[in-house]
Amino acid sequence: MLPMAQNDGELDSLVRKRIRALRVAQGWSLEELATRAGVSQSTLSRIENGQRRLALDQLVTLARALDTTLDQLVENASDDVITSPMIDAAHGMMRWPVKGDPGMSVVRQRMTEPPPDNPSRMRAHPGREWLVVLSGTAILMLGHRRFRVETNQAAEFPTMLPHAIGAEGGPCEILGIFDRDARRGHQPDSGSKGAGGDFEPGGACS
Fold first, then answer.
1. pLDDT tens digits, residue range 170-188?
2. Where are the beta strands (DSSP E) in the chain?
3. What pTM did the predictor assign?
4. Beta carbons within 8 Å of 25's beta carbon, 6+ residues apart
5. CA separation for the pair 49, 36 (Å, rounded)
6. Is 120 exposed, middle or buried (0-12, 13-18, 19+ CB in 10 A)?
7. Rg (CA), the chain
8. For residues 110 and 172, is the Cβ–Cβ distance under 8 A?
């Protein structure tokens, strides 16, 4: 039986819809998924249509055939769909956790100063960062290269390269996503509000 309350009809229906949606997304017919999962086409049809009780062993087999896991197949993601940001007024930032990976965080920051001219102020640390410019123009210094990132353009880079970020021609607003290692590589600097240099996501989700 399913590892959930027997009377949880809403989750039962969700699992059936999810099986069908994953099958359709792969472009598979009932027959093709049934063959891959080693069940009859009629059994699979009844599972999707709610005419057959969900059995744990069949769900494990179907999850494997659909290239997912049992946990993901029966996950109830109805809670906490909307996330409010944490406000860091001292650094002019808004921060959101990324639930798909507890080590990731999202930072929104306004920058007013250009990136530093002194290479010693560029940072390097393990991880990867991804950023998109929401407004204005940003300058990304990456090693010995200088990139101009316009509104709605994005950049992704390994943070083991020395890097710094700043504004060009006026303030810019940037949204950045940091993996676990990149987030750990930053420490807040109380004097850095709006200054060129880098994002300051330290402690965003700790």
1. 999 999 888 777 666 654 4
2. 86-88, 93-97, 105-111, 128-135, 138-142, 145-149, 154-158, 163-167, 172-178
3. 0.51
4. none
5. 19
6. exposed
7. 23
8. yes
